[in-house]
């Protein structure tokens, strides 16, 4: 993965965008990584991956709660309890 300083990314933005289409590019400021730029295609793929992972986790959690005896009525009572 290539690294650009924030200033280099600004002054060579066209080149920066071309590189990003091939691979992620790390951006630094004061010798600290402040971001990573990826192509729109890679970004959408990452969003889809994490959305699917979240859905799976939520489904697994709901199944575990149901198997442990959780019902919508019990959940409502727990959420309404302000103590």
Task: Kindly list the characteristics that best describe this protein.
83 residues, alpha+beta, YefM-like fold, 2 domains, 3-stranded mixed sheet, 4 helices, 3 strands, 61% helix, 18% strand, elongated, Antitoxin, Antitoxin_Phd/YefM, YefM-like_sf
Structure description:
- 61% of the residues lie in helices and 18% in strands.
- The chain is α+β, with helices and mostly antiparallel strands and 83 residues long.
- The protein has 2 domains: 2-38, YefM-like fold (3-Layer(aba) Sandwich); 41-80.
- It has a 3-stranded mixed sheet with strand order 1-2-3.
- The longest helix has 28 residues, at 40-67.
- The mean pLDDT is 94.
Care to give the gist of this entry?
By secondary structure, the chain is of the alpha+beta class. 61% of the residues lie in helices and 18% in strands.
Q: Determine the N-to-C terminus distance.
A: 51 Å
Number of domains: 2
Number of strands: 3
Assign a percent range to the helix content: 55-70%
Percent of residues in β-strands: 15-25%
**How would you sum up the global shape?**
elongated
